[in-house]
Write a structure and sequence with these properties.
single chain, 161 residues, alpha+beta, Alpha-Beta Plaits, five-stranded antiparallel sheet, four-stranded antiparallel sheet, 9 strands, 37% helix, 28% strand
Length: 161
């Protein structure tokens, strides 16, 4: 039985590199001078703090540009609305989405069943395992899943023959 896994995993080393590059650029740019703009990675996600909402939004754009240059999809990031800080500034929380949640996983499995391909999909933790008898069916399943309109970035890994 041939199989592969459908996962949604963030390349954390690339995100960290983009975060460091964005911090360096914010420190050097004249328009961010004396604004107290900073980016911080935490358990909740990535927090951008600044003295004003427009500077926080500008810092968000800088971070997104760095992430795109490092070939990390913006689908991994869920940007929340700016919130006022106690000192009159603004903060933006960027949540990082990793893993396939239950609803998109069910959509993938049901799409595989509806396509009547000779493959089975199983939801395992935050991924979907697809098994079939031959490679051609698995490749058709990959094309089918790529065509689905899901709001997450998918990767196909652990191909076994």
């Amino acid at each position: 039985m041939a199989s592969f896994d459908i996962v949604s995993k963030v390349q954390w080393n690339e995100v960290d590199n983009a975060l460091n590059q964005a911090q360096k650029e914010l420190a050097q740019r004249f328009d961010f001078k004396d604004t107290g703009t900073e980016l911080e990675k935490s358990e909740a996600g990535i927090t951008i703090r600044s003295s004003s909402e427009d500077r926080a939004n500008a810092a968000l754009v800088v971070f997104q540009e760095k992430v795109i240059k490092r070939k990390v999809s913006l689908k991994f990031f869920d940007v929340e609305d700016p919130k006022p800080t106690p000192k009159g500034g603004a903060s933006i929380l960027i949540k990082v989405k990793e893993g396939i949640e239950a609803e998109p996983a069910r959509k993938i499995v049901s799409a595989l069943k509806e396509a009547k391909l000779k493959v089975q999909g199983q939801i395992q933790d935050a991924q979907v395992r697809v098994t079939g008898k031959n490679k051609d069916d698995l490749q058709k399943a990959i094309q089918l899943v790529r065509g689905l309109d899901l709001d997450i970035e998918l990767k196909f890994v652990n191909f076994r023959d």
